[in-house]
Design brief:
Oligomer: single chain
Strand order of the largest sheet: 6-3-7-8-9-10
Number of strands: 12
Order of helices and strands: HHEEEEEHEHEHEHEEEE
Distance between the termini: 67 Å
Largest sheet: 6 strands, mixed
Shape: globular
Radius of gyration: 27 Å
Length: 249
């Protein structure tokens, strides 16, 4: 750094500019040395939105992929509506624990727990349970029957099911076709994500949050909530080209 500074000052400069340049260089050097010694805040080039990316003495945040996040807590609000979140696996619950030897994934605990640690909707009493931990292409009718049974036994009338996107429509139809006879006044929203919840650019938080809004206004029934759109269980299909969920015409 000092050799570059010397080279810069050795170049021809006007008499008026030479003192100014020397002053700027000395100020920058002093600021960097002060920061390294912990005597001052980081230089402005390391500041984002006037907040240091890493201040002196602060412990760096562990990456989400490390799997060392705090366990989900059960949150209760006075006179809040009861909501049950049931996890079945799928992309939303995928974790990538392998650190060496290539890529690998496994279905972890329901991602809803971690989502609700970061984004906690007020006025709700939340419970989370796991029905199964499978890629949605591996889900069988036995698994769907277990999910149906969990919905029937639920004491609350608002239920969110997190599910893989490949067969989400099939599960919605399985529940929807039996809703009128067995599920009474219950509102059930199925959702998932195109990218795992552990990814920075995941859509999991958006989709789960949307379900809470739907549960507050929709009549009893089974719904599929994805990509910012709500579909009734019997009027939705997945476009094989785009992968998006669309309404039947």
């Amino acid at each position: 750094m000092f050799s570059r500074t010397k080279a810069l000052l050795s170049k021809p400069l006007s008499a008026k500019l030479r003192p100014v340049c020397r002053g700027l260089v000395v100020s920058c050097v002093f600021a960097n040395i002060s920061w390294l010694l912990g005597l001052a805040q980081p230089p402005s080039s390391l500041v984002l939105g006037a907040q240091p990316l890493c201040s002196r003495g602060a412990r760096p945040t562990l990456a989400r992929a490390s799997g060392m996040e705090p366990p989900a807590k059960r949150r209760r609000a006075q006179n809040g509506a009861e909501v049950l979140l049931l996890g079945t696996g799928g992309t939303i619950d995928k974790a990538y624990p392998r650190l060496m030897g290539g890529w690998a994934f496994e279905i972890g605990e329901p991602a809803a727990g971690r989502i609700l640690e970061r984004v906690t909707p007020p006025n709700f009493n939340l419970s989370i349970a796991s029905v199964c931990k499978k890629d949605s292409q591996e889900i069988t009718d036995e698994d769907r029957e277990a999910l149906f049974s969990a919905c029937v036994k639920a004491t609350c009338e608002r239920i969110i099911v997190t599910h893989g996107t490949d067969t989400m429509v099939d599960t919605a139809q399985y529940l929807g076709s039996r809703h009128a006879e067995h599920l009474g006044n219950k509102r059930i929203c199925l959702t998932g994500s195109m990218r795992p919840e552990r990814f920075v650019d995941t859509d999991a938080h958006f989709n789960v949050g949307m379900c809470f809004g739907v549960l507050g206004v929709a009549p009893p029934g089974v719904y599929l909530c994805m990509n910012g759109v709500v579909h009734a269980w019997d009027s939705v299909f997945r476009d094989a080209v785009t992968g998006l969920f669309k309404a039947k015409e």
